[in-house]
Amino acid sequence: MSLFITPREKVALRQMMPLLELNKTQFAAAVLLGTLGLGASIGLAATSAWLISRASQHPPVLYLSVAAVGVRFFGISKAVLRYVQRLASHRVAMNGIASLRENVYRSLAASRTDTVTGLKRGDILARTGADVDALGDLLVKSILPACVALVTAVATVIGLAFISPASATALAIGLLISGIAGPVLTIRSARLAELADEVARVDLTSNALTLLDHHAELAVSGRTRQLRDHIRTTERELTRAKDAAARPAAFAAVLDGVAMAVAVVGAIVFGVPETNAGLVSAVALGVLVLTPLATFEGTAELAPAAVQLVRSARAAVRIEEILDQPSERHPVDIPALPDGPILRAENLAVGWPGGPTVVEGINLELKPGRSLAIVGPSGIGKSTILFTLAGMLEPKAGRVTLNGVDISAAASEDVGALVSLTAEDAHIFATSVRENLRVADPELTDDEAIDHLNTAGLGSWTRSLHEGLDTMLGSGGKTVSGGERRRLLLARALASPAPLMLLDEPGEHIDTATADRLVSDLLSVPVGTESRRGTIVVTHRLTPLAHADDIFVLSPIRDSDGSVKRATISDRGTHESLTQRNETYRWALQREGNTDATTQ
């Protein structure tokens, strides 16, 4: 294997293979069936060779009956065994891919957000999609063919050695040329082609997603044609990469023919003198010459298997890069408090991994029964604050604690049980309305789901659905309007049993009157069946904040040239106090009133 993959790839494969949860019994059965199928093909060739050679001697027909039955037996067995082997091997592969994908998703869900924030969205999709499939294909397209070819080659060489050791040696040489020299000679060009294909595939996926998800913005900015041209160029590069990857397979096929010729010519060269000397019968000579033709069916798969090994090894490296490495640090338990959890930020500064600090000077406390709001211009860092408070991003400075425990030191599932975050671009899944809410609470009842939908302003919408809660939604919320999507996300947030709730722009894409009413209700009305939650709402609307206990106003800090350096908490207080003393806040609130009056 060292001839084909690098030490780094070998380590990645060793770490990723357990995630496939390979059923060794099923895999052994697939190898056995594959070996029997190829053995039937070799048996068919050998029996046919014997039958043809013996028939040329014009014996009584009865002498040929057993061989004739053998030909039919091996011919039928070849087709049946290969079909059953396909079923068995693909069952192993599909189960392995499903287990791998589940384990990768579970690992990503439990890992920190900064493990994937440095990657393009299309790259993440490629690693969790195509790369997972490529690693799963290692079983069916690489390891299985190698095992089958090895077993049948050894068995055939040993079998022919009983007839003619010299001819068996020629066959062994031919099999070595086809099974080792071919893959070794083609592997370097295959690796280069795979690297080019990998880069082009990631670029194509990323830009295709951008075109699909942001086609409206691209059309307005006049960049649609430019992006389409770039995608076409990438597709051409991908086609060239595939063509380059096909050349090694073609060369291996030629080499396989040369190796087959070595075996057949060797059988003739060594077998004819042995036949003339009476050491080998004339009928056996036909078997020696024709049997290798079927034997090379196994080694012909080894060059593609080697290419698949490279592809799977590269995929293993890429998957490993987005999974958290094992850590000796044990998560700290979050102690329970009698009055519910308390989330604190102390001198907090936030920003995305690898980027600058975007907001600093954050000090806040959230507990059940308390409602906070964070306001400020778009793009100033409000969402980044929520991600950091939820433990998904590491603070740039300061700390975030949950019941006195540093939130980054606690297990993510323990944090998630106490703090829920609904991001502005949270996903709507391609399943029913009910299951989209049960993402937050698997034990959610239908009555509770309807209550949350009513609270989110979707009562009449839910009643209008032909299948009610069983109505299927399109992936990403493509089958609902922007406002309905936001309300569904809000209903999901309300369904979460976590006592602390963080909401990013819950009123986005909803008419201002309805959005203001929803945000006001979130900040003032008890939510949940037992007690009022602690709520932080990020919003750019000030009108519905009268019921917030504390409002944090973000303002930019500018450099001498006027560019925004970062943001900070410039003021905080209740809606009434800010309206009275903060001129900027009061002006923005008045502008909202004038705008609402104009649009109504």
Write up this protein.
This protein has 600 residues and is an alpha/beta fold. 61% of the residues lie in helices and 10% in strands. It has helices spanning 7-16, 24-55, 61-110, 121-128, 130-161, 165-213, 215-221, 224-276, 282-299, 302-322, 382-389, 412-418, 433-438, 446-455, 459-464, 482-495, 512-524, 575-581, 583-599; strands at 343-350, 359-366, 371-375, 397-402, 405-406, 419-422, 500-504, 534-538, 550-558, 564-573. Helix 1 (7-16) crosses helix 10 (302-322). The protein starts with 6 loop residues before the first helix and ends with a helix.
Keywords:
single chain, 600 residues, alpha/beta, 19 helices, 10 strands
Précis, in short:
The chain is 61% helix and 10% strand.
Number of helices: 19
Q: Give the spatial strand order of the biggest sheet.
A: 5-4-1-2-10-9-3-8-7-6
Number of strands: 10
Distance between the termini: 72 Å
Largest sheet: 10 strands, mixed
**Low-confidence residue ranges:** none
The arrangement of helices and strands along the chain is HHHHHHHHHHEEEHEEHEHHHHEHEEEHH
Given helix and strand content, the structural type is alpha/beta
Shape verdict: elongated
Give the DSSP E fraction (strand runs of 2 or more residues): 5-15%
